[in-house]
Design a protein that fits this description.
single chain, about 375 residues, globular, binds zinc ion
Length: about 375
């Protein structure tokens, strides 16, 4: 029965996130690769742009090699304890022999498993790590603001949080790089994470684009605002490049998990994104599921499936398993509780906020139906 509401080609559900199935049972994204909503659009990657990216990546490797030993660190790798950044760290050290600095941002909402992974990894490979934990209060206020002011638009809370949080994370890493005179920063964003950036975060965005407008008012203080760059900061200074190599080199999630587990960089099972993603996301997923009748993860899974149709079944099973857990508040329950306590909101308040939005939504009937689909 549920099948008729799920896109035949991916896993998106009719009526959630503004998605509609056509008479063939195919969703807007599968029908039209240029389809765009606030929550998802595919950055159009042509073979030429991918080839150009790969060519650039190879020249960056050459560049780093050519001046190896001249500086203390060849480059920075953003290190979160998740599978992708762990594998990228390993690749840069093991395959290329670079001396790099692993930079970790502790937002105060990072799960213990992620830290455990980092410790396990750094026991196996010799890399210096810096943990930046001075901005926890700014992160907390940022999350609190986004949760409290999540509007009635179609943008998911998860997306809204990740975008705002990502900007501050990138900002802090760039600052660290500039203070240490490191000119290349790498992040292990996977190929499905291409909604905002493909391969490189443009210089112009680094300089101009990261300060959220709401930070000018309460409850934010001068201290919070100072964490962000103003364009003046960069005057007469070289802006580091921020590259996302997985967008252009071969990427296989399966291979990555196999690699990091076989090298004992992380314990078996600890490479799951569901275990390493931050606590705030668990609370946001609870809201989004109740607000939109589906998990925002489905948008990402659907993108992966369009890139490789044979994995559809695997992701469908994941959604079937995950959805009831999140609906019942059992998914990272501790993380949800920590988040709600920190931002001063109860589970009931969050749920009733979501239900209030559903009641105003023209797709109300479908959303309520979808909530019980899995
Ligand atoms: Zn589809």
């Amino acid at each position: 029965m549920e099948q008729q509401h799920i896109c035949k080609e991916c896993v998106l559900i009719d009526g959630s996130f503004g998605i509609e199935l056509n008479s063939e049972g195919v969703c807007n994204y599968c029908e039209d690769p240029t389809y765009k909503t606030a929550n998802w659009w595919k950055t159009q990657i042509t073979d030429e742009s991918k080839e150009a990216g790969l060519k650039d990546w190879n020249s960056v490797i050459e560049y780093l090699r050519s001046r190896q030993g001249e500086r203390k660190y060849d480059c920075i790798v953003g290190f979160s304890g998740g599978k992708d950044s762990t594998a990228l760290l390993y690749k840069m050290v093991h395959d290329y022999g670079f001396n790099l600095l692993a930079v970790t941002i502790d937002t105060g909402f990072v799960p213990e498993v992620a830290f455990e992974n980092m410790r396990d990894t750094l026991e196996k490979i010799e890399v210096d790590q810096v943990i930046i934990d001075g901005a926890k209060e700014t992160f907390r206020k940022l999350y609190q603001w986004v949760f409290t002011n999540q509007g009635s638009g179609e943008l998911t809370l998860t997306r809204n949080l990740c975008d705002n949080c990502g900007d501050l994370v990138h900002n802090l890493v760039v600052r660290e790089a500039m203070e240490r005179d490191i000119d290349v920063i790498l992040f292990g964003y996977s190929p499905d994470e291409i909604r905002r950036y493909f391969y490189e975060i443009p210089r112009d965005e680094i300089i101009n684009d990261w300060i959220p407008s709401f930070i000018s008012g309460e409850p934010f203080t001068e201290e919070d605002r100072e964490r962000y760059f103003t364009p003046e900061y960069f005057e007469n200074r070289e802006v580091p490049r921020i590259l996302l190599p997985y967008h252009v080199i071969d990427y296989s999630e399966e291979e990555i998990i196999k690699l990091i587990e076989s090298k004992n960089l992380v314990k078996k099972g600890n490479s799951s994104t569901l275990k390493t993603s931050c606590h705030v996301i668990a609370a946001a997923l609870f809201y989004d599921l109740n607000r939109f009748g589906a998990l925002p993860y489905a948008l990402q899974f659907a993108e992966l499936i369009r890139q490789e149709p044979s994995i559809r079944k695997k992701w469908l099973i994941t959604l079937k398993r995950l959805t009831p857990m999140i609906r019942e508040g059992k998914f990272n329950e501790k993380g949800v509780n920590i988040t709600l306590e920190e931002i001063g909101m109860s589970r009931e308040e969050l749920l009733s906020k979501a239900q209030g939005e559903v009641d105003k939504d023209p797709n109300r009937e479908k959303i309520l139906r979808n909530l019980g689909l899995f």
